[in-house]
């Protein structure tokens, strides 16, 4: 688990595939665990970005496109939801 700083102050956690499995993220296809990117619907492979305000995951490429998009704006009223998801995932990963 790595907390990812960004210029827009979103809380973002970079997780491994093993951590994604522990959290129950993704699907099992042909006996392989896949963590699906909400942007492109492909497997995130080894770079998985969990965005608490969206409560979903991105692959590296889609995360970069999302965070650098001028339309991606952090709204203060979303903070309670974002904080709750962030703390929950952090707690699950540190157990």
Textual characterization of the structure:
- The structure is a single chain.
- The protein is built from 3 helices and 6 strands.
- The chain is an alpha+beta fold and 95 residues long.
- It has one domain.
- The protein has a 4-stranded antiparallel β-sheet with strand order 1-2-5-6.
- A hairpin with a 4-residue loop joins β5 and β6.
- The protein is globular, with a radius of gyration of 13 Å.
- The two termini are 12 Å apart.
| Mean of all residue-level pLDDT scores | 92
- Specify the structural class: alpha+beta
Biggest sheet strand order reads 1-2-5-6
Q: How many separate helices?
A: 3
Task: Encode the helix/strand succession as letters.
Answer: EEHEEEEHH
- The number of distinct β-strands equals 6
Which consecutive residue ranges, at least 5 long each, have pLDDT under 50? none
| Gyration radius over CA | 13 Å
In short:
This protein is of the alpha+beta class and 95 residues long. It is built from three helices and six strands, in the order ββαββββαα. It has one domain (2-69).
